[in-house]
Amino acid sequence: MSGFGPQLLDDVDAVFRERVERGVAPSSVWGVFDRTGLVASGGHGDRGDGSAPDADTVYRIASCTKSVTAATLLALVADGRVRLDAPVTDFVPAFADVALPTADSPVPTLRMLLTMAGGFPTDDPWADRQESITDADLDAVLRRGLLFDSVPGTRFAYSNLGYALLGRVIAVVAGGPYTEVATDTVLRPLGLDDTVFSAADARGFVVTGVRPHAGAWEPLPLTGPGAFSSIGGLFSTVTDLARWGAHLASAFTEAPEPGPVSPADRRLMQQAMRVVPASVVPTSSRATAYGFGLFVEQDARSGDLVSHSGGYPGFSAHMRWSLRDGVGVVAFENATQAKVSAAADHALDLVLAHRVADGAVDAAGDAYLAPGAGRTTDATRAAQGAVSRLLADWSDDLADAICTPNVAMDVPYERRRRAIAEAAAQVGADLTAAPSDEQSTAPSHLRWWLSGTAGRLRVEIRLAPLATGLVQTLNVTAEPSER
After folding, report:
1. 46 pLDDT exceeds 80?
2. 197, 293, 450, 469: which one has the fewest Cβ atoms less than 10 Å from its Cβ?
């Protein structure tokens, strides 16, 4: 399979093997998937029974659960049973006792909670220990009051409490426990039968979470479902989580998989809804935002990368994929603060780099076809052919036929024709030659090069938003060879 050769998979496997050898966690398991599902996996260390973990070994996936919570809520919205802009007090009356930070603060809406904009402080250490509390316990927390770091709806702050409230909303709207609603609405319809909210319901071997203590691994007890299960209560396998990632990513294809959550809503989950401040992700080199239950990272080479980590006492999980390529990585380890996300990030970078090197995708994303953009891509290709004919034998009539009027207004044709000839002469380029390389940042954009004896010529076009497919930008630039 192109892009997944033995050397690549060996390189990915080595990333996780090294972590076990270094003592980061007693076990580590990984999987690589594409649009067809899981294509490769591997595991290292001792999962607790003397065996290395495999793709069907069960780990706690912690906050990766939030994507399932978001998907479940969107399914209820699609059924007309709830609105995203409804205030949380419509479903959790106890929240009415919470004093908001300012006199004009809005009550957090479901949309605010989904995008981590409820205004609450980030709360991982506290929330990780709340899973099994009851609804009455959560109500008591609310009635005692909350702190706010910002006015609701104004700023990102990762909040487990916000997703616990969404779990309650789901239960109230659907008339059943959150765990059952999420299972029946999302998990079982997709065949994710090894993804469960209780270790007792798992079909495979369940790994015990541990933390380092006195030079050894100290086992930690598992908690059971409760009012905070919607923040991170799921257990899953590499096989199932890869299936979930592939299903979500398929929404960005011309033929998305059917499922309990519509492709439109799955695309909504993977949109940049709320900017994540750089101070929250100081080690990241990518601009980051939060969608609905998922992070969205902007990568200069690979476009949008969607991800979520899961951290829980004794466990670390991560899932990430490229919307452009539909390939991704999932990984689990069973140690507190193992941060397997760093390894999964590295592994996906390896996968994407190898696919570019093997020619499976274009380095700048030309292979990524956004849903509904096929007509635009066809028009851009047609415009490329017309521009190539224009460069080879300039004609003002042809330029008028393929370009919007601003092209001649911005740079008169005679001046433009002369500049093109001078640029071609500077690098010794043949204007009739075939493109030697291509890049695209959007379906309506294309950049290509013509080789020359002293460098190369860069040609770049961008179409106007007109159905006739006319060129609004035409740039031809000499790139001399370094001497």
Report:
1. yes
2. 469
